Amino acid sequence: MAVTSPPAGVLHGLKMAPSHVLRCCQRALNWIPVLFINLVVGWSYYAYVVELCVYTIPNNAERISYLVIFHIFLTMFVWSYWKTICSRPAAASKAFGLPRAEKELYEREERAETQQEILKKVARDLPVFTRTAGGAIRYCDHCQIIKPDRCHHCSTCEMCVLKMDHHCPWVNNCVGFSNYKYFVLFLAYASLYCVVICATVIKYFIKFWTKQLPDTHAKFHILFLFFVAALFFVSILSLLSYHLWLVGKNRTTIEAFRAPVFINGQDKSGFSLGFKRNVAEVFGDEAKYWIFPVFSSLGDGLSFVTRLVHIDPEQANSVLQHNGKSPADGKADPCVLGNNIQHTPDDSKEKNDAGQTVSVTMESGP
């Protein structure tokens, strides 16, 4: 009796099934830190509102004032936290993908040098300034795109994320261009939430600790609530301080550990434009939106303003005219300017033979 083998499609499906199940299990497990945070916040709400305000505080005026302040900071904390979680990481546009002809040449080519020539040809029309440590064009084989500046591939999210800072397990999401402001606000409001709890609970914490209040079911909740809030405050404050420092320097966590590489070498401050402008890139140029978790960051995440670059006067005039602007305008499209200049980490001005100073500033996207 002849034994026939199953069709190839069936075998392929059987091979893919275990990996699909493992991927689903991994995605489910990734939500455990988020579930833990929500359980802690839910318990803190019960402990504060019910055990402290309802059963322990005797004064109505004090109780109401505590509840109002508590709910304001809780609302801002939860709002910014879930905005960080639910904001899909921003991905590169199709413009950074290889055109069909170049893509076929790239995939057929086996020599790395020739592949780089193909990438360099395509990158001439893109606002790409950074390179790999070896000076090559940054290309993602998984997403099949030329990586925009400050963009990195996240193996957990399985995509290239614009201005990627890091993948945070506590929000089960990549922190990048689309939600970095939300993430910083989440840390800020989480710290303030803990401060409000510690500042209002400490009086009753001391009374329970020194036996000035009778032992009730509220004692455990209030004592534990103070310790948990204080512990979280110390850990979150250190992380918040670090990210505020990064905002002031206009760096991501990745760039803080590995300085971005430009055509002329590494420059850890290559994207720094001064403290005020650095803060505005994350929080926006309208201060009234800074404290709210609504998107107000500047730019498009695809191209970024760099520090002033060396450029000779004739080249400056030709570039500005190519962009339809006169040299007096002093502004240029970064997509065009980026293909005619060399980035340098030092001075931002160049003198011509007559001793005149010429500088060109690149403007960010809308």
The count of strands amounts to: 13
Instruction: Give the fraction of residues assigned to helices.
Output: 40-55%
- C-alpha geometry: elongated
State the helix count.
11
Profile the largest sheet: 3 strands, antiparallel
Mean pLDDT: 83
Structural class: mainly alpha
Strand proportion, as a percent range, falls in 5-15%
Distance, first to last CA: 72 Å
Integer-rounded radius of gyration: 27 Å
Q: Uncertain runs with pLDDT below 50, 5 residues or more? A: 10-16, 308-366
Structure description:
Residues 10-16 and 308-366 have low confidence and may be disordered. The chain has eleven helices and 13 strands. With 366 residues, it is mainly α. Helix content is 50%, strand content 8%.
Task: Give a nutshell description of this structure.
By secondary structure, the chain is mostly helical. The chain is about 50% helix and about 10% strand.
Question: Key terms for this structure?
Answer:
elongated; 8% strand; mainly alpha; 13 strands; 366 residues; Palmitoyltrfase_DHHC; two-stranded antiparallel ribbon; 3-stranded antiparallel β-sheet; 11 helices
Secondary-structure blueprint of this entry?
Blueprint: H1 8-29, H2 32-54, H3 60-86, H4 100-108, H5 112-123, E1 130-131, E2 139-140, E3 145-146, E4 152-154, E5 159-161, E6 166-168, E7 173-175, H6 180-209, H7 217-249, H8 253-257, E8 261-262, E9 265-266, H9 275-283, H10 313-322, E10 331-332, H11 334-337, E11 350-351, E12 357-358, E13 361-362
Parallel strand pairs: 10-13
Antiparallel strand pairs: 1-8, 2-3, 4-5, 6-7, 8-9, 11-12
